[in-house]
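Exercise 7. Given the components listed, write out the predicted structure of the assembled complex. Treat all entries as one system.
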Amino acid sequence: GAGVSQSPRYKVAKRGQDVALRCDPISGHVSLFWYQQALGQGPEFLTYFQNEAQLDKSGLPSDRFFAERPEGSVSTLKIQRTQQEDSAVYLCASSYGTFQETQYFGPGTRLLVL
Amino acid sequence: AQSVTQLGSHVSVSEGALVLLRCNYSSSVPPYLFWYVQYPNQGLQLLLKYTTGATLVKGINGFEAEFKKSETSFHLTKPSAHMSDAAEYFCAVSPSSNTGKLIFGQGTTLQVKP
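Answer.
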């Protein structure tokens, strides 16, 4: 069956531009997570949704980062006024239930801010 | 705060040799533990996970890991390396009392020599 998909796969932005990254989770999955993976590092948690509710946004690095999941399925991560330090791979993961269910990851969006 | 340490950012083995990737965690409560593998330009794939019960966990592709509470370790092993095992491996912890977000180590790159 279809896995988690993300678009675009690659994004080049000029410093100061706004970007929007899309995540299509596996159909029926309740939980959705966003992670940021800097080059040579492990993924770092950004935010978590249970259906349409954003229950944890403790990992968002600044108020320039905003995520939404308005209908409890597709999610968008928006970064305003991008900075060079935002360059990273942004990973989306979904899981069927809540609490320690296996997370299925998408291929990621590689963002390069020039 | 929870954290994960992976000893050795690069591990090189010969094809057919034992694979041992080390992971130690810090947690004030028994965590859930995971190993993920990441191939180039792909998302993370779950190898195995420990939640409760038997401390020796078997995963896909012949990998296994043992949870040792006294050593706060969750090392990943495979008796005989295959060329296709070359990838990036991440150990992760999910504290048992939160939303399920994963805290990752920095990763270990496994190189398999012919």
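Discussion: Chain A touches chain B through 30 residues (CB under 8 Å). The CA atoms of residues 4 and 106 of chain A lie 5 Å apart.
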